[in-house]
Amino acid sequence: MNNIWSKKIQSTELLHYSRMERFNDNNKKIWFEILEVKPNLTILEVGCGSGHFCNMIKSNFPNCNIFGIDLDTNHINFAKKESKKFNLNVNFQEADISSLPFADNTFDLIFSHTVVEHIPFDVFIKEQKRVLKKDGKLIITLVNASSKNDCPFEPFQNEILSLYSKMQFNQYSKPMKFLQPTDKMMQQLSMNGFHNIDLQFKKIIYYMPDVQENKQIAKQQIEIHYKSKLSDALFNLSRSKNAKTLKAPLISLLEQQYEKRLNLLKENKKIFDFETTQIAIISAIKK
User: Fold this and answer.
1) Which terminus of the chain has fewer CB atoms gathered within 10 Å of its CB, N or C?
2) How many whole angstroms separate alpha carbon 158 and alpha carbon 162?
3) Averaged pLDDT of the chain
4) Cβ contact 27:204 at 8 Å
5) Contact, 45 vs 67, CB < 8 A?
6) Contact call for residues 222 and 209 (beta carbons, < 8 A)
């Protein structure tokens, strides 16, 4: 059993709500265009986490044959349960990207989201190239946090950030030491048998409840946003040495912030808070 990621870096619940928030029914067409999903493809997601992307694709493209792999046992177990709960029949497996459990030339499309920065690039692409069909497509997406221009909901935010600043962590950093410039990744793709290599950027507004015509959708956005923030708080508290003194006030502030935002929605008071994600998309075709 491998659960280092879900225990030390990003819990399954946190990852799941984070991806639910960013890839949702309102922006799914944008994501399907980014991932170049079409009917009847055999698709692999590398580093699928909680399985949200795979399950969203399968629910909208039922004729696609979808596979998801991740090294973390907790992530894969959660993904399997979600797929079964919604009768989606996605094939989730615990597997290492350096030794994929698939035959040569299996997939029409392989994609990953915020995975490439954690693995040496030569290891990252070697097995994906092997299991891609000739003329199959590889898509790599990365998030550029420095390009965010969010306008978050302000009430209680300074108090919440103040509590976060007081957390005392045992040292454990995310293994992002393999991140390299996009031009270097594209050069390596070219040297390793890929062509039609391309780079695009997309900025996606994933949260802006006050522009939703359907108030129920707006409410869902606020609820998932809250669950994502709550999951983040609980995970950070689980790693903090002084969690006992911080947990109650932090959870209380998040609940108050959530209730205040919901009340503004009910009262039709529009404040137009929003959050975005900036995506870099590298695509390439196997020769």
Assistant:
1) N
2) 6
3) 95
4) yes
5) yes
6) yes
